[in-house]
Specification:
The chain is an alpha/beta fold and about 150 residues long. About 40% of the residues lie in helices and about 15% in strands. The longest helix is centred in the last third of the chain and has 20 residues.
Length: about 150
């Protein structure tokens, strides 16, 4: 039995690319495709990544509101404020997560806010701590979904 979901992945550095399109709605296919994503390093152009997310969501999202989780380990070389505002104004929720040497003054203001007005920004000290979070989520939620996948 194949499970359905709607999620995509955009990686970015000084450029941005859709690694997993919103067209891929099968959970098993999503897990398989995530194995091919690699860390590219390089510059950090958050504006370009959010612009691509805006375009991708406008064309391919199946829901009226989308949750975007922006992960970065650097400071953006461009100002992402306008693109983030356009994303939020469309009813989408933008969570920002800085890892290691991020610039909080860039990420916190572009985040959406929760019902109390607190920014949906999170700072993580390093990739080791981030991997702990990922491993927890994978064990808590991913294993049950992945066990039905044959690949």
């Amino acid at each position: 039995l194949s499970m359905r979901r709607s999620a995509g992945v955009i990686t970015f550095s000084s450029s941005a690319d859709v690694d997993i399109s919103l067209h891929h709605r099968d959970t098993c296919e999503f897990f398989r495709l995530t194995d091919n994503i690699t860390y590219s390093g390089g510059g950090t152009d958050i504006r370009r990544a959010i612009y691509l997310a805006n375009s991708h969501i406008a064309m391919d999202a199946v829901h009226h509101h989308t949750i975007i989780i922006l992960l970065t380990d650097g400071a953006s070389s461009t100002n992402p404020t306008q693109e983030a505002e356009r994303l939020r104004d469309s009813g989408n929720k933008l969570f920002t997560v800085g890892i290691g040497r991020y610039d909080r003054s860039q990420l916190e203001p572009i985040s959406s806010t929760d019902s109390t007005g607190s920014p949906l920004f999170y700072g993580i000290t390093d990739f080791k701590a981030f991997n702990n979070v990922v491993n927890y989520l994978h064990k808590a939620f991913g294993n049950g979904m992945q066990q039905n996948c044959k690949y």
